[in-house]
Amino acid sequence: MSDTPLIGVLALQGDVREHLIALASADALARPIRRPDELAEVDGLVIPGGESTTMSKLAVLFGMLEPLRERVRTGMPVYGTCAGMILLAEKILDPRSHQETVGGIDMIVRRNAFGRQNESFEAAVEVAGVDGGPVEGVFIRAPWVESVGAGTEVIAEHDGHIVAVRQKNALATSFHPELTGDHRMHALFVDMVRAVK
Prior knowledge:
Blueprint: E1 6-10, H1 16-25, E2 29-33, H2 36-39, E3 44-47, H3 52-61, H4 65-73, E4 78-81, H5 83-88, E5 89-92, E6 105-110, E7 121-125, E8 135-139, E9 144-148, E10 153-158, E11 161-167, E12 170-173, H6 184-196
Parallel strand pairs: 1-2, 1-3, 3-4, 4-12, 5-6
Antiparallel strand pairs: 6-9, 7-8, 10-11, 11-12
């Protein structure tokens, strides 16, 4: 059996291409996925940034929401960035109407917590479990985590707010590591996938 995991990037909306490149740089096979049969074939999944309300509605439209919930519930490794973090939350503080989540991480998130598009910024973030110094994070209309449950590990904070968490096989960041050329967050996720493959 190959040690190279097959990792999907949910390709309903958002920065799919950048994640595919980052995963390939971290020694994974990566492919975009849109349908339940494609989801069934992958060892792990990245839920990219984008617009969380739109992604939620498209997941329902494409028949992906329940299959996603089931795979995450049964232990498939998953990594959500920005909007992906929102979709992995058990609760959103200020959800748009009819916005549903995949769940998987016992946390409460606040949408657009760091401000609007024109308040986007980059920051160096120290992430527990990632060697080599701070990770460069791009924050675009980013959420933050208001609170976590007992089983959720906080692995990074910025400006007093939680911006990266891990719970078992689920990982989430407020920021976009795929936009920086620093692929250490993706390498961490690929290692998580390998550990359960």
